[in-house]
Amino acid sequence: MSLRLTNAGHLRVWAVLSLAAALTACNRKPPALPPAPPQAVTTVTVAAHDVPVNAEFVAQTQSSQAVNIQARVSGFLDKRVYTEGAVVKAGQVLFRMDPKPFQAQVDAAKAALQRNQAALQVAQANLARTKPLAEQNALSQKDLDDATGQAEQSAAAVAQAKAQLEEAELNLSYTTITSPVDGVSSFAAVAEGTYVSPQNAQLTTVSVLTPMWVNFSLSENVMERIRHDASSGRLKMPPTNAFDAEIELVDGSIFPYTGRITFADPSYNSQTGTFLIRVSVPNPQGVLRPNQYVRVHLKGALRPNAILVPQRAVQQSAKGHFVWLLGKDGKAAMRPVDVGDWNGDDWFVDQGLESGDTVIVDGTLRLTPGAEVNATPYVAPPRPEPRRAAAK
Q1: Which residues does residue 359 pair with via DSSP β-bridges, in sequence order?
Q2: Which residues contact residue 276 at a Cβ distance below 8 angstroms, ignoring those fewer than 6 apart?
Q3: Is domain 54-64+209-303 annotated with CATH 3.40.630.10?
Q4: Omega before 132 cis (within 30°)?
Q5: Backbone phi, then psi, for 102, in 5-degree steps?
Q6: Which has the least CB within 10 A, 148, 264, 363, 375?
Q7: What are the pLDDT digits (tens) for 325-355?
């Protein structure tokens, strides 16, 4: 007897066979995965120690004395003698005005003085003759009084003529305009041949280059935080707040002279929300010029018993900052921390770590709590020494 299957029968057979094969595969256990190797990490053991604290601020230079050079008399400006933008010395001639009208005033004042001196001599001689005659009653008392008054008026006229001559000579000297200080000159505000009057008396400006002022601002929040850290003992200020101020130039080099804070504005600027701080620094070669942008590094403060960790060891989650610790059992564990300011490539940790804790620095990307790690010591990269500008 032969067995014949239709197409529908064939389909049912294949479905039964496929179901049996799938059930057989489900009963087999998958092969066990090999254990993951320990994660390679680098670690550092933290220790509390006193750390110098350096603060950095963007600042702008300012001349310690910017002198406006103005004409003291009215007249025609003959010539500009100095080179605009050049360094000038005290007493150096900057401008010359037309002296001829003022020389004429001097000559007239001298002539008036000579005339009054001659009148004084006549009056004094007349008084000398009148006195003995009045004593002998040869002349009346009125004649003596008239002679005395004439002599005194002539003496007053001589004194007035001397003052007018001194004024005329002073005005003549003002036609030669010199610099009262050593400094760098600005452009000439008045062209040669211009009539100078009180309305356009401003000729130029000479800015003193040494010492140079360097101004920067502290925000109200930063100022309050500094005060709080100092009062709580977290920050130790230098004696009498005598910070050393290093100036970083635009090319990253360090200015060879160190300054000191000489002024702190007690008034709060409500427009900028800051307090003005001024540093005075020697600038004998004139390297710094007014209105330059520089950076100020304040040194001298100390943070006692501080704990530092490399910046990349600190992670951040939705709950805040944390670090990975290597426990005594050789496994990784998370630890929440409170961080403070940066210090170079490190970060101050205010709370959460103690001396002797081993912090994982590198290799934290795939760590999980309780993971075994293969730890090696962390080696900090060498910090480049700041390049100092050569003193010229």
Answers
A1: 44, 325
A2: 215, 216, 217, 263, 264, 265, 269
A3: no
A4: no
A5: -75, -30
A6: 264
A7: 998 888 899 999 999 888 888 999 999 999 9
Provide φ and ψ at 347, rounded to 5°. -130, 130
Parallel, antiparallel or unpaired: strands 212-219 and 244-248: unpaired
Give the residue from 196, 169, 181, 170 showing the smallest Cα distance to 95. 196
**Which residue spans within 28-74 are E strands per DSSP?**
39-45, 49-63, 66-70
Nearest to 308 by CA among 35, 84, 51, 75: 51
CB 384 within 8 A of CB 371: no
For the full predicted model, state whether its pTM sits above 0.85.
no
Tokens linked to 276: 């003005």
Query: Distance from CA of residue 60 to its chain's centroid?
Result: 4
Give the CATH number of domain 100-174; options: 1.10.3720.10, 3.90.1570.10, 1.10.287.470, 3.40.50.300.
Answer: 1.10.287.470
Most confident residue range from 50-59, 204-213, 323-332, 360-369: 204-213
Cβ burial, residue 244 (10 Å; 0-12/13-18/19+)? middle
Q: What CATH code is assigned to 71-98+175-205?
A: 2.40.50.100
Calculated CA dihedral for residues 227, 238, 251, 87, nearest 10 degrees: 110
What long-range pairs does 158-166 form, CB within 8 A, spacing at least 24? 158/113, 158/116, 158/117, 158/120, 160/116, 161/109, 161/112, 161/113, 161/115, 161/116, 161/117, 162/113, 164/109, 164/112, 164/113, 165/106, 165/109, 165/110, 165/112, 165/113
Residue 58, classed as helix, strand or coil, is: strand
- Fold entry, domain 39-51+306-377: 2.40.420
Angstrom distance (rounded) from CA 217 to CA 97? 44
Q: Evaluate whether 54-64+209-303 and 100-174 have a shared fold.
A: no
Domain residue limits, the chain = 39-51+306-377, 54-64+209-303, 71-98+175-205, 100-174
For 130, the enclosing helix (H) or strand (E) is helix 100-135
d(CA 21, CA 146): 154
Q: What is the pLDDT of residues 222-248, one digit of tens each?
A: 888 889 888 988 899 998 888 999 999
